[in-house]
Each structure stands twice: as C-alpha cells, then as structure tokens.
UniProtKB/TrEMBL annotation:
<dbReference type="InterPro" id="IPR001173">
    <property type="entry name" value="Glyco_trans_2-like"/>
</dbReference>
<dbReference type="InterPro" id="IPR029044">
    <property type="entry name" value="Nucleotide-diphossugar_trans"/>
</dbReference>
<protein>
    <recommendedName>
        <fullName>Glycosyltransferase 2-like domain-containing protein</fullName>
    </recommendedName>
</protein>
<feature type="domain" description="Glycosyltransferase 2-like">
    <location>
        <begin position="6"/>
        <end position="132"/>
    </location>
</feature>
<dbReference type="Pfam" id="PF00535">
    <property type="entry name" value="Glycos_transf_2"/>
</dbReference>
C-alpha cells in the first residue's frame, strides 16, 4: 500500500496534466505513491495521452463533468493509502515538494491539512496557496478595495495574509486545493469533500470542518510547486460566477443566520465596486472594455450566484 494516493482531476487539460504527472515522477524519490487520474469527461485527448505516456497511472473516467469535489471523491473511493494528496493538473512539482510536504505532515500531525508554496510559471510568488476563512472583516475590506490597495497588510488583507512573505511556516485557515495533503482517517471522518460545491471553496469547507474537529491546517515554505490556475476555464465571467457561488455557499453553510445577509451584501458590493471602477477605467483605457463586459455579465447574474449552489 502506498503512503500517498495522489488524486488528480482532469478536464480538457491534456498537456498540463502530462506535465504535472511527469513532474511528480521526476521529483518524488522518498515517498511511495500512486497517481489516480479522474477524468471529468474531457473532450480533448486527456485520457488517451496519459494512458499512453504513463501506463502506471490509474485512470477513472466519470462519463460526466462532476466538478472538482465530485471528481476527487470518486478518486478517493478507489484509493487506500494512509494519506490523500489533491493535486491540480495545472501544477508542476519542484525540488521534491511532495517528499518535503509529507515529511512536514509527519512532524506536525495535529494540523490535519498541509500545503506548500505556489509559484507562477516564472517562479515569482503566487500568494494564493492559503487564505483566511470568510468573515465580516475580510469581506468588508475586499468590497471596499482596501485588501487590494494595501495588499501587503495583514490587517487590510487578512484574507490573503498580506504581510506573510511565504518564507516561514504558519497556521492558516484554508489550504488551497491545488496542493492539499490530508490523512485518510480525517478524510473519512469528514466524509470527503462536500459535493454541493461544484468547483471552488470545497477545500475551504473541508478545512473549516477540520478546524471544528480540533485540527489546524499548516503550510511549509519548503514544499514548492508551480500553479498556473484556472486553465480549464475559458472566460473570466465563467470563473468568477463559480468563485462567487462557492463563496456564497460557504456563507450558507458556515455563517450564523444573522451574518448571512450582511456577508452576502458585502459580496455583492465587491462585484459592484469592481464594475464601477472598470467603467471609469475603460474611459481612458479601451483595452479594459472586454473585462468590463465580463464583470457586467457577473453582476447581472447576481441573484443566481448569491444563492450559492442551493
């Protein structure tokens, strides 16, 4: 039995998936692992390419797009390892990152969820490896644009731990699902990812539920990966609609009754302010017109995404 089963959900990302899997084999030398690729009914050559290039990878074809949570749960049902590692297809493992993350997990067992550092393709820091859970403070500062204006501040940008340079380990609320290690016993205790979340925020929900069980997710700077992000999404509005639905669903599930309308109001204010600022900016920069149209689409559908996935 392998120590880690790596669950990779693919959806029309053939070349990225190939690169991700190749990096796992090249960079993981100390930890026994198995890769399970769950294909969510890709229309490209994902299944054929991976089966040809990596015959040792177990491939499960769902026959439908189950979303990230649904695909991951299918994969974990076929696994039997001590630990489960969620890995996005648009990632590249660097410098033994899986070995280092596993060593860190063994040294900090009370965390329950472990993650590393994410980098852009040019190896510059991508600070989206971890974040704080949604709260009045994070939603307010985001809605007012303060988290962006003071992005290096841990007060105004607490959502993204703005003052943390990612050079030290620390406790976090949420480990991003692109590189997310958890023990099987906790996974089974929490019954995996909540499939209500089709895509985005499912890992936040898992981490929040783990914290309620007495665990505290952690991140190590020693385990680094490249994460491209959003390669299966073809347009901005499509991605934003899913992100906002996920956030609204987190509010539905974890906010107190009296907090829900306030938090959702701030979520809507964030989109409105983004739209208004783009309208102003597009008067001087015509290249912003397409982005403006995308955000107009998002705002027009606010009554839909504010419901979450319910």
């Amino acid at each position: 039995m392998s120590k880690i089963d790596i669950i990779l959900v693919s959806y029309n990302t053939a070349e990225y998936t190939k690169r991700a899997i190749a990096s796992v084999y090249e960079e993981t030398k100390k930890t026994s692992f198995r890769i399970i690729m769950v294909d969510n009914d890709s229309k490209d050559n994902s299944v054929e390419l991976i089966a040809s290039e990596f015959p040792e990878v177990e491939i499960i074809q769902t026959g439908a797009n189950l979303g990230f949570a649904g695909g991951v749960n299918v994969g974990t049902k076929a696994s039997n390892s001590e630990y489960i590692l969620l890995l996005n297809p648009d990632t590249v493992i660097l410098e033994g990152a899986i070995d280092k993350l596993f060593e860190y997990a063994l040294s900090t067992p009370k965390a329950g969820v472990w993650g590393g550092i994410t980098l852009n393709n040019d190896l510059s820091l991508n600070p989206n490896n971890a974040r704080a859970r949604l709260s009045f403070k994070t939603l307010l500062f985001s809605a007012l644009g303060l988290s962006k204006a003071f992005n290096k501040s841990c007060f105004f940008n607490h959502d993204n731990y703005g003052c943390w340079d990612r050079k030290s380990e620390r406790e976090v609320d949420v480990v991003t699902g692109c590189f997310f290690l958890t023990p099987r016993h906790l996974w089974e205790d929490l019954q995996g990812l909540d499939e209500t979340f089709f895509m985005y925020a499912e890992e936040a929900d898992y981490c929040i539920r783990a914290i309620k069980k007495g665990y505290q997710p952690r991140v190590t700077p020693d385990a680094k990966i490249i994460h491209h992000g959003g390669v299966s999404e073809t347009n901005l509005s499509g991605k934003m609609l899913k992100l906002l639905k996920g956030k609204a669903e987190l509010i539905n599930k974890h906010a107190k009754s009296w907090e829900k309308p306030i938090h959702k109001g701030l979520l809507q204010l964030h989109v409105l302010n983004k739209l208004l600022s783009l309208k102003l900016l597009s008067l001087f920069k015509k290249d912003k017109l397409e982005t403006l149209k995308e955000w107009q689409t998002v705002y027009k559908q606010r009554n839909e995404w504010l419901k979450g996935y319910r």
